[in-house]
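Morning. Coffee machine broken again, so started the prediction first thing and wrote up yesterday's gels while waiting. Chain of 408 residues, entered below exactly as on the submission form.
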Amino acid sequence: MNNSYHDDEHESIKPFFLKGCGIIIAVIVLLIAGFLFTLGILSVVNKVSPVDLLKGVDSQSQTTTMPQKPGEETNTGSTKALLEEKKESSEASLQGFNNAITKLVEEVTPSVVNIAVKVRAADGSLGEGVGSGVIFSEDGYIITNNHVVGDAEEIIVRTGGGNEYVAKLVGTNVDTDIAVIKINENNLKKASFTSINNVKVGEIVIAVGSPFAIEQTVTMGVVSAKGREIAVSSDTLPMVDLIQTDTAINPGNSGGPLINIAGQVIGINTLIFSPSGTNAGIGFAIPSDTAINIASQIIKYGRAMIPYMGIEMGENTTDTEGIFVSLAIKGFPADNAGIKSGDIITKFDGEPLRTNFELLAQMLRHNVGDAVQIEINRNGSVLVLKVTLVESPVTAQSTTTTAAPGAN
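Came back before lunch.
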């Protein structure tokens, strides 16, 4: 009887023991799984391997956080060495970029000048103004804006080296806002220029000038857009082909250069859009193509000679992209070449055209006397005609040439 009781007792204890062992094993497995899961999450967050995490390696400091026992050598494994190499490479890249920018500025600033002017106000009082300029030639020709020096009675140029000169006004053009002044000096460091065709939206650019008369100020941004057009006044042609930038441009930057990271001038800073009159991240520069062409004309002829082909443009309601010719003025180049009313100009000297502004932009890149190929669409037929450009009778009247009193 007793033996039977003890046998029953053993039989009841055995399954209970096995069940308890199973629970303990399951708990241990869950704890290990939870630890491994947590280790995996922490390794991802800290951007290190689970092994390095167990060793106490921090992804930012790359140093071990485990206490070092006396006499124990520091772990300098291959993983740490590789991470340190990457860190050094990153620093070298940033330092290289920084060095490149500072070197670029050092090379460019000798070609940028400060321009101080005295202007007679309507009431007869003499006011002062400030702007910037770019050295165009070694013998003292400087490009700036018409609105900086066009009405000046006195022009003082100060170079980056601190030398001051009285300048004379060689000529200006109100339509493009380009002016040329000259100082009596040789062996100046002239700027390097490049075409807007070589400029891409998003490129890093630098503006150098004298905002608020603070000379040799450098600001940096990007090319925000190309080919902008702005109607400044009803008395002048619209400004076309402008470069838009978010580089800080303020009063006093006018006439100064907008340069690329190769140190080349891509444009001449001219105006800003701003409700306050100061930088709001929307500035504009005249492309170098237009600036140097107009400047060269002023130096050669004493005035700008804007090319003209003699057409009136209308709204293009056809399916053909281009410039709709509403009238070819009799006796002018377009008429002489055979262009007729109703023709659509699709290309100017090989450059595709979409808007009237683009045609004007192309004209400003050319000179009087240039023979250009004009592609037209006439009732579905494509014709290529040769047109020799003449000077615009309208813009010739708006071009002025003066000299600063007392200038050499």
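Residues 294 and 304 are 6 Å apart (CA to CA). Going to sketch it on the whiteboard this afternoon.
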